[in-house]
Design goal:
Layout lengths: L1 H10 L19 E6 L1 H4 L10 H9 L2 E6 L15 H9 L7 E5 L9 H18 L4 E5 L9 H16 L3 E3 L20 H15 L1
Parallel strand pairs: 1-2, 1-3, 3-4, 4-5
Helix pairs in contact: 3-7, 5-6
């Protein structure tokens, strides 16, 4: 009988006595996604969480999701066996739409004609627009830490043309010069300091 009395007494208390206080609403950081090559995903001694892509997100207070693979490009499949468009499809397209998508590259497309590069970039941008019509998209041209070869300018111009035709912003890192300490001994990829410089530049452009 005592158990019954105690149970009735507990159930008789006002419901507000056990109501949990609502948790304070937390403001979620905007999401920025990247598709890119080894500059974006990391190479050599620089891991993915220290690349310019990750550091740009940290500078802006955003949440990064990074896709792509070394050696890839708008046309070039690299060892991964996929282009930027395929990386977008298999790594990003199934996710909820981000606040910002950055497509960065072209360094590995210098063996392809500018016409092919422009067509591939336009195809990717068209698919992104159809899939995420409300997502802001920014295209970053080929990254060269040293003096770019002549063919790199043709690739850069082709990517820029595709971006303009797709009505998205184009940012050109080839207009910047980088100090020697920003380049790894391979003469191609950025050191940690180089990634920091790229991140500061990109964050300022995006802001």
């Amino acid at each position: 009988m005592r158990r019954v009395v105690v149970l009735v007494a507990v159930l008789g208390l006002p419901s507000c006595a056990f109501a949990a206080k609502p948790a304070p609403a937390e403001q979620q950081a905007p999401v920025m996604m990247f598709v890119g090559d080894s500059f974006t995903v990391g190479s050599g001694p620089v891991p993915p969480w220290q690349t310019y892509a990750s550091q740009t997100a940290r500078l802006l207070g955003w949440q990064p999701i990074i896709a792509g693979a070394g050696g890839t490009g708008f046309c070039n499949e690299g060892r991964a066996g996929r282009t930027f468009q395929r990386s977008f499809e298999v790594e990003l397209a199934w996710r909820p739409a981000p606040d910002l998508l950055v497509i960065s590259g072209g360094h590995n497309d210098r063996r392809w004609s500018p016409e092919r590069v422009r067509g591939a970039a336009a195809s990717l941008l068209s698919e992104v627009r159809a899939h995420w019509p409300e997502t802001r998209t920014v295209v970053v041209g080929p990254i060269w830490m040293g003096e770019p070869p002549k063919k790199a300018y043709g690739v850069r111009d082709a990517v820029a043309e595709a971006a303009r035709a797709g009505k998205v912003s184009f940012l050109d890192p080839m207009r910047r010069s980088w100090p020697k300490e920003a380049v790894l001994p391979d003469g191609v990829h950025p050191t940690l300091a180089g990634h920091e410089g790229l991140a500061a530049w990109l964050a300022a452009e995006l802001a």
